[in-house]
From TrEMBL:
InterPro entries: MlaB-like_STAS (IPR058548), STAS_dom (IPR002645), STAS_dom_sf (IPR036513). This is STAS domain-containing protein. Residues 19-102 form the STAS domain. Transmembrane segments: none annotated. Gene3D superfamilies: STAS domain. It comes from Mucilaginibacter ginsenosidivorax. Pfam families: STAS_2. It comes from the Bacteria.
Amino acid sequence: MENVSFTNMLTGNGIQTTISGSLEIRDSAEIKNEFLLLLANHDHVELHFKNIDKIDLTALQLLMALSRSASDHGKKVHYIFEPTAYISEVLNNSGFNKFISV
């Protein structure tokens, strides 16, 4: 799987977005733009990460920035990661496991 893909589904209280593929620095502009669009149009955003091939620190920093921005605007963002050994390792090694859990 290459690059990142987003699939959106409206829910009763916001939007659920499934994200798959690789979330790397090369995709950071696309990821940022998608996150900003979601946050601008919805008060509750639920991000499901499935079939993640790669994720780097840039993507994790974007997730933290999204959380801060949502909080500043009275909105909510929830992260749901497919529990894989790879994701657990990345979160643990980067220290982001304190903020994002699987």
